[in-house]
Structure formats: C-alpha cells, structure tokens
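Fresh eyes needed here. I'd like your take on this protein's tokenised backbone:
***
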Amino acid sequence: MSKNNNFYYFRMVFVLIIIIILLYLNMKYFSIDKFTDIITNNVNNINNGDFEKNTEVVLNPYIKVDKDNINEKHKILWQKLDNNFMKSNWPNTFDFDFDIKDDIIKKALTLPLNSGIIDCGAHIGDGSIAISHALKYYNREDIIIYAIDPSKYKCDFIEFIKSKNNLNNLIVLNYGLSNINTEYKTLKQSGNNTGGWEWVANDTSSSTPSKDDMNNINKFIKLDDLIKDNIIKHNIAIIHLDVEGMEKEALIGGKETIEKYKPYISIENNDKSGKDNNGKNHSSNNEYYLNFLPKGYKYLYSKGQNNILSI
C-alpha cells in the first residue's frame, strides 16, 4: 500500500471516528437523561431561592402608555432572562406571540362581569401573567384567568410570579387537557424550547416505572370534568389552546363546556395538528377545528399560528 493510500485510509478512519463520537454526544444530549436534567434543574432553581435573587421589572407590552407616563403600574416583576431558569425555558418573554395575546386581551375587555378565561399550555406564564396583569390595570380584575399546564415546576413558577405581582385574578391549575382522564408523559425533547414539549399517554403496563418516568408523569383531565368538579368556577368566555398537537383532544374533552358557554376560541393550528387522509396538513385548513365544535361556530381570522373561532 502506498503512502498516499495509507494517508487516505487513516484520514477516513479518523473522520469516521469523529462522526461516531458526534453521533454519540448528540444522542446523549437528546436522551431522557437530558430531559430529566432540565426538569430537575428547574425544580432546584425554584427551591433554592434563585427566583428571589434574579427578578427584574419589565414593561407589560399590552398596556398602552406613552413613554413619558410609564410608572410601576405598567410593569411586571419577572425573571431576568440571563438566569438559568429562563435560559432553560423558552419562550420566556411577554411579547412572544404578541398578536395572539393582544387579541385575547382586547376580547376580554368586552366580556361580561366575572367571566373566566382558559389559558391551556400556559408554559411559564408568559401569556397568562401578562394578560391578568393587563386586565387588572384596565380595571377588569373581575375576569379570572385559569393558567393550566401539566408541568408542576412551571405551575410553581407561575404561582411565584403571581404572588409577587399580586395577581388575584389568576388561578393556576396543574393539569393537561385531553379527551380522557389519564396520565401522560413528555416525549424526549431537545434544546431549551420547553414550550414546545409534546405529550404521549403513559404506559401503565409496567408495574415498576423508572425514576425518569416518575419525574415525568403528569395528570391530564377533560375540561368538562374541571367544570363539573367545580375546580373551574366561572362562566368560560375565552379558551386559548396552545397544547402542542393535542388541541383536538382538548376540544373534545371540553365539548359540554363549549356547548354551554360558547366561548371565543384562540387555538394553535400548525404542523403538529397532523394531516388529513390525503396527506394535506390540517394547518392549511383554517376551518379544521370546526369539525369538533358545536354548530354555529365560524372561523373569523388568524393571529400568528392561531385560528380564531367564534359563534
């Protein structure tokens, strides 16, 4: 074998070894261990006082005010974006999906007294905190926002921010919404977009779930049962669903509630909504979710990736 061939051979072997190492590291990063680390670190951040040390005040972007007239009433105590918790939980700013949240607030300001708003897929409260704060500012604290999310550490974070901002018009519920009452667990996810976590039904056939699974099991319930059990006590006037592909199940599980209250619905419709029998994405059909709603509902318009549906 010539020297050139030897050089070529060793170079190829070296490249192959590098590729194998990179693949291994990639798999390690995206493994359930990485996912569990995210949860564990977030819980530790909440418990060890990091929240208290890393707060700052930010302007609520949904309150219309001239720069010269800004005061403390226009601001929210929030977490600094450079702390570990916020870095691990994107999206983490109030202006994310601005048009969607702004639309909800504008509709909320027209609601009857003592109405309720469902914000499901509340994540870390980047929507429900800003909405409840804006409604309080506009003297509509009678409207109650139910921030619903299956991740306990996210609910704990929302509770912390709620208490620091005296948001008495916000109620936090640690559930996911589905068409059945069962346990779900998170699919393996990558990166820091915890707002994009998806969920699958938990396999209960194993009598001894792993430690990872125990940390990752969350209760899902039908919206109708939250109403029947008097966990949600208000007439529901708005439903916002951003539940990473489970929007259909959430609607089905809330069939009686929607039939009774006929709420204004803002619902995410993207590639996670699936495809029809012809392989066409449901996201290209703005009227897709009407199939799971009572007669009389219509598609009004879209805000971002959300379809706005109403009677």
